Amino acid sequence: xxxxxxxxxxxxxxxxxxxxxxxxxxxxxxxxxxxxxxxxxxxxxxxxxxxxxxxxxxxxxxxxxxxxxxxxxxxxxxxxxxxxxxxxxxxxxxxxxxxxxxxxxxxxxxxxxxxxxxxxxxxxxxxxxxxxxxxxxxxxxxxxxxxxxxxxxxxxxxxxxxxxxxxxxxxxxxxxxxxxxxxxxxxxxxxxxxxxxxxxxxxxxxxxxxxxxxxxxxxxxxxxxxxxxxxxxxxxxxxxxxxxxxxxxxxxxxxxxxxxxxxxxxxxxxxxxx
Length: 274
Known about the structure:
- The chain is α/β, with parallel strands linked by helices.
- The chain is built from ten helices and eight strands.
- 47% of the residues are buried.
């Protein structure tokens, strides 16, 4: 039986794989159902949809949207929605703009310590999509401030640039817009989002109460206990169960289809797609 992977990133956001490469790797890795869920952008999933269907794969249109809950950055996976819905698109674009503003704020704060950096140069700088990651990470590497792409991530916390202060929409509002656009709102990687919670099950239940329709129970970094807690809650509530690798190609370590989750283990038909 083919696997399912409903959480893959392309070069449209911070992955290193094009939509064409994603579809090819899905076929190679035994994935029969997929979704490209770029961060706060829909162009990648729109490009991948016809390619996947032509290849005989089940495709669910998706996007991963940043939101805020109790000061935490919560990634909401949107599945099966009308991606032309203006209210949903406004939500996606707002999240993307706020992510960019975080990088602008970081650059502003780093200038006093790194005089070689320049706002004008950064504005004109273009990232190489094939390398994955975000523009600011590319720029810091280009300027020799860092020696690897991921090394630049630490500067956000170091200079006090936080998701809590960025003004992202509440998780409940993002979930509402997804549902009103005919989609389903699913909590991405609960074990990562709620890392450090003393009572994970209680925190998960409270977060799901924000209007989420399901949870990404099968995820590479989830322990057995986290996975089973997520599955138990979804079963009790009749909530959707999904699986995803969160593959970013060469930018991160996970691989397409890594969780090896069977189609029968997820709520595929309830997510839309074809």
